[in-house]
Design brief:
The protein is built from six helices and 15 strands. It has a six-stranded mixed sheet with strand order 4-15-12-5-9-8. The chain has a five-stranded mixed sheet with strand order 1-13-14-3-2. It is flat, with a radius of gyration of 28 Å. The N terminus is likely disordered.
Length: 359
Amino acid sequence: MPILTEPQLSGRGKREDLMDMIALVDAKDTPFTSMARKGSKPGNMYFRWQADQNPGPTIGGVVDGTDVSTYSNFVQGYRKELANYAQIFRQTVRVSKLTQDIADVAGIRDELSDNIAKAIIAIKRSMEATFTSDQLGQRDNGTNPYLTAGMLAWIGGNNIGTELNIGGASSTPAGSDPSFITPNTSIVSGANASALTDATVQGMLKSIYDQTGKYKSFDAIVGTDLKRAFTALLGTTALTTTSTAGVTGAGATKVQTFQRDAAADTFIQSVDVFQGDFGTVRLHPTTFIGTVSGTNYTARSAYGLVLDMDLVEVRYGGNVAQVTALPDNGGGPARLIEAVAGLVVGNPLGFGKFTYTAA
């Protein structure tokens, strides 16, 4: 019998069998930044654009032979200036010299390169969360940084373009015209996303159509619970109740109705496109939509943005994710990954949003 057997080698120089791979399951999509147009490089951290409206119809005729006595100005009162700030997104990484030059880590050829790749992904995710959030625009004052106003703030917010209140809903500057503030009828809110109905979505699309007059195809960035609420539109559930309204009786029978062929051998329960009277909505689930309070971010799985992507663009400053080598003072190689980007919302009247509190 051999003196050294497998169990006897435990703790005496025996190496574990570690596969040369790392399993990564976190591959969350960033639909907003992927779909938004890439705009021109901003000439300043504070950049502006114009939104316009067409005049409404005039009723009545003109008396024959009368001279012109009044004039219309279809610029003043119709065209407004909107504005936003760009924002700096930054990640820094460093690995020790031993980690980089000596350590042989399973599944990784170069630890520094792997850190840089993940930092670039982190910046894109930070942009996605920022652009779809309710963050308000902010000017850099030497203490607080530049902040770009997100879509949740623009839709329904006061966005006439004053530097003190970009994309915000908190206050209206004196004398400003709220003509480009998204109407409340284009905003759906409530306690639970489970209350979503087809009539609710149709009402939002009708409101957007009332503003634009165009039957459009929209892209909806929806949280996971709101996506489930759309799928729930496929079927209805009924429970027998007692004589008391809203109270389920003992032994109640659950009846669920599905809008599919009863003979089908594949159960399909998913809504990816909602086609209504006034537009078509393509649903894109996301985990990066939420609200901002200071530097705290809260994901909102029951929120959603209904967007005309022709009216949205992201303006990037310079290299989208520039990698710069930082000095190595003995601690190991370090890299700075930085990007500058700002959100342009062409005309807030052409959008809608869902702000349900919970699933």
